[in-house]
Amino acid sequence: MVSTRPCTATCVIDGMPVTLTFYPDNGVLRIADPSGNLIKETRWHASWRSLLNEFRRFGERAAVQGPGVAAVVSRIVENTEDSASHTALA
Fold first, then answer.
1. CA 36/CA 51 separation, integer angstroms
2. In whole angstroms, what is the distance from residue 40 CA to residue 31 CA?
3. What contacts 86, CB < 8 A, 6 or more positions away?
4. Crossing angle of helices 69-86/48-65, nearest 10°?
5. Which pLDDT score, from 0 to 100, does residue 65 have?
6. pLDDT value at residue 76
7. Other C-beta atoms lying within 10 Å of the C-beta of residue 68
8. CA 7 vs CA 10, 14, 61, 85, 90: distances in Å
9. What is the tally of helices (H) and strands (E) in the chain?
C-alpha cells in the first residue's frame, strides 16, 4: 500500500536550504525555499530513497562545480522527465 503522507527533507544546495516534499501516492514533488515559497513542482516517478540519492549526488557535484540551486533543481526535473519517458507500468 502506498502512503498518502508526504515525505519531507531539507537539503542544503549551494549554501541555501531547500525543502523537498514528495507525495508517494501521486508522485508530486515540491521544492521550496527556506521561507516556504515554491521553487518548482514536478512529478517524480521513482522512490523517495532514489530522490534523496539524486539530490545527494547533485549536491556532491555542486560542491565541486558550484552550479547553484536553480541549476540543481532543473537537472533533477530533467532527470525526472527523462525517467518518465523510459518508465512503463506493468
1. 20
2. 5
3. none
4. 140
5. 62
6. 72
7. 14
8. 11, 22, 24, 24, 25
9. 2, 4
Q: What is the pTM of this model?
A: 0.69
Within 8 A by CB and 6+ apart from 83, the residues are 45, 46
The owner of cell 527533507 is 9
Among all chains, which residue has been given the C-alpha cell 519531507? 8
Q: What is the mean pLDDT of each run of 10 residues along the chain (90 residues)?
A: 83 85 94 92 92 80 64 70 49
Which three cell numbers mark 6?
508526504
User: What is d(CA 58, CA 5) in angstroms, rounded to the nearest whole number?
Assistant: 26
